[in-house]
Every structure is written in C-alpha cells, then in structure tokens.
C-alpha cells in the first residue's frame, strides 16, 4: 500500500478445551493480549459463554471489531491469533505494493511452515506414545490373566480401563491367537509379542 490506510475488521475468535474455567481464562488472556497490541484498537467486543461440545470439551467464542493501523497489521494479527473468521468493514478496497505483498505472503508462509513442522513432530510423538501405550496395555493384560482366566470385568479391574473400552484390545488378542476365550473367560495362551 503506497499510503497506510486504516482497516476496520470484524473478527471471530474461538478457544476450545476443558474444563470450562480453563477455556474462560484462556479467552480472557487472549483478549487481554489483543488489547495490549500496538497499532490496533478494539472498538467492540462481545464475549459469548463457553458452550459444551460433544461431551468432550468447551468452546468459547468472542466477536471483536478492531481498527488496524493498516492491512499489514490485520495480516499480522491473523497470523498471530488465527481467528476463525475475518470480515473487512472498511475500506471498500485495498491496494498493495509488490514488495509489501511479498513480505506479507512470506510471513504467512513462514507461519504455515512452522505449523506444518510442529504438526509433523506432534504426530510422530503421538504415534510413538500410542505404540508404547499399546505395548504397556499388552503387558498389563498378560499379567492380569497369566495365572488364572478372567472375565473382561476382571481384566478391566486390573488394568484400570472400563470393560467397554478394553474389550476391543482383548478381542484383538483373541483374534491374533494370543489369548484364548472360553465362555466369558479370557485365558493366557502365548506371549503377546
């Protein structure tokens, strides 16, 4: 943009997690940080109460109207806070110089690259943790039924996982021929490894 022109935008932010109190505190912290930002001014804000989603987590939404010193601050805001929605209210049109647009695009690509690398690292770590968790579960199941056959409820009591959640794992070991099932009892047959 040859000349810096103020940009006003409506922004929707979303924070999800649990418990409800954590979500509320996190959203309050995000809003507090936004209000401290230089070259932007919060004109309006509407905080909605966190709503329970899928019995797993809570989601809090805040709607803001913000005045940015120029479009580059809006872009920076979007990269830093990752809003779920942005609507530019003013001005009706924006123009960018090639060098400025190049900088904005490279900033966006840097952030996306960082997110992509972080995702890959977290996925690899998660896969490793899942694999180790399954190995631990195999050991605990084996120890549970090594000396005497047990029902799924008996194994669940030893393992500390509900029978409903444990059953698919135990049935997998039955299918693999590592555990034998006679009636309602599961019996150690061979090493789980």
Q: Judging from the principal axes of the Cα atoms, what is the shape?
A: elongated
Low-confidence stretches: none
Using only CA atoms, what is the Rg?
27 Å
Q: Quaternary status of these chains?
A: single chain
Distance between the terminal alpha carbons, to the nearest Å? 64 Å
The H-and-E topology, N to C, reads as EHEEEHEHHHEE
Mean pLDDT: 88
The percent range for helix content is 40-55%
**What is the third-level CATH name, the topology of the largest domain?**
Alpha-Beta Plaits
User: What percentage of amino acids are in beta strands?
Assistant: 15-25%
The total domain count is 2
The biggest beta sheet, please? Answer: 5 strands, antiparallel
Task: Tell me the number of helical segments per DSSP (H or I, 4 or more residues long).
Answer: 5
How many individual β-strands? 7
């Amino acid at each position: 943009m040859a000349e810096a022109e103020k940009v006003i935008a409506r922004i929707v932010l979303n924070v999800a997690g649990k418990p409800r109190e954590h979500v509320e505190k996190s959203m309050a912290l995000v809003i507090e940080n936004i209000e401290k930002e230089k070259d932007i001014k919060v004109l309006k804000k509407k905080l909605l109460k966190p709503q329970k989603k899928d019995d797993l987590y809570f989601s809090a939404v805040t709607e803001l109207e913000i005045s940015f010193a120029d479009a580059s601050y809006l872009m920076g805001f979007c990269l830093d806070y990752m809003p779920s929605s942005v609507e530019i209210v003013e001005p009706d049109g924006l123009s960018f110089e090639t060098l400025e647009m190049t900088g904005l695009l490279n900033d966006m690509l840097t952030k996306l690259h960082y997110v992509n690398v972080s995702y890959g690292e977290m996925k690899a770590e998660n896969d490793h943790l899942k694999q180790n968790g399954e190995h631990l579960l195999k050991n605990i199941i084996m120890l549970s039924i090594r000396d005497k056959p047990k029902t799924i409820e008996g194994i669940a009591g030893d393992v500390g996982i509900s029978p409903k959640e444990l059953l698919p794992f135990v049935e997998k070991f039955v299918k693999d021929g590592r555990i034998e099932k006679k009636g309602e009892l599961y019996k150690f047959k061979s090493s789980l490894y």
